[in-house]
Recover the amino acids of this structure.
């Protein structure tokens, strides 16, 4: 897997005529969130690039179906999650730990209130990816969604098809699992 | 004397900076780590170019006015 491109990261403005249609500003505003979700979901830059392209193409084609019942960000995430999960299923690319017993993580020594220390920022992306790859897909997705400050617990719950209380409970375990695994990657 | 004091302050400042760099960064939670990582992730510019090609550079389809009226 290639390491993700990191550094100072201005969002590249969408070029051409569709930028003028309003879709360009939508892309500019949300492409980083969708790309990042795909990048850390797959752990592969090329797959993330393809998925981001496909998600925005679907959004473009279905623009007339968008109702203002949810935010654009939530709508895009819904397309992205479906797309990514379908790809994973079709590739039979399940993570080796995806069926792991949750108690492995729940009984781990790490505490969620312990700070996560990083010495080398340049290695951060690799450590994050290793950590996320080792978590069940559900935890990975929840953590990636909750990291987006634009999403509320209710919106995350709707995206993953669970109650907000269930999401809060799972997030607690997901954070704990992440902290435990992240420490091991140091 | 004053010069010595200033030098000492600069040294302290430099040492503090070095210590801070050596200590690295601390994140309070998984979300914070991921937010930091996301903020430093660059979206490949070729995605926008590919999208423009795929969409033919046109405008997306608009929702018909009657759907808005009927709430469908």
């Amino acid at each position: 897997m290639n390491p993700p491109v990191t550094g100072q990261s201005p969002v590249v403005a969408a070029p051409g005529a569709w930028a003028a249609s309003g879709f360009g500003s939508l892309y500019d505003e949300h492409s980083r969130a969708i790309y990042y979700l795909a990048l850390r979901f797959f752990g592969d830059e090329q797959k993330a690039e393809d998925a981001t392209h496909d998600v925005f193409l679907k959004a473009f084609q279905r623009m007339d179906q968008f109702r203002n019942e949810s935010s654009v960000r939530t709508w895009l995430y819904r397309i992205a999650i479906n797309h990514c999960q379908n790809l994973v299923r079709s590739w039979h690319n399940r993570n080796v730990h995806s069926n792991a017993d949750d108690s492995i993580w729940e009984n781990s020594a790490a505490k969620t209130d312990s700070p996560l220390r990083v010495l080398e920022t340049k290695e951060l992306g690799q450590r994050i990816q290793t950590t996320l790859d080792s978590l069940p897909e559900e935890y990975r997705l929840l953590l990636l969604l909750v990291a987006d400050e634009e999403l509320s617990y209710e919106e995350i719950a709707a995206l993953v098809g669970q109650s907000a209380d269930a999401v809060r409970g799972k997030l607690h375990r997901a954070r704990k699992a992440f902290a435990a695994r992240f420490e091991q990657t140091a | 004397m004053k010069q010595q004091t200033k030098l000492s302050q600069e040294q302290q400042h430099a040492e503090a900076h070095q210590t801070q760099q050596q200590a690295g960064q601390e994140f309070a939670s998984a979300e914070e780590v991921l937010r930091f990582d996301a903020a430093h992730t660059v979206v490949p510019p070729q995605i926008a170019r590919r999208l423009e090609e795929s969409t033919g550079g046109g405008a997306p389809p608009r929702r018909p006015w009657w759907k808005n009226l009927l709430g469908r």
Remarks:
- The first helix of chain B runs from residue 2 to 23.
- Chain B touches chain A through 42 residues (CB under 8 Å).
- Residues 16-22 of chain B have pLDDT under 50 and may be disordered.
- Residues 23 and 33 of chain B are 16 Å apart (CA to CA).
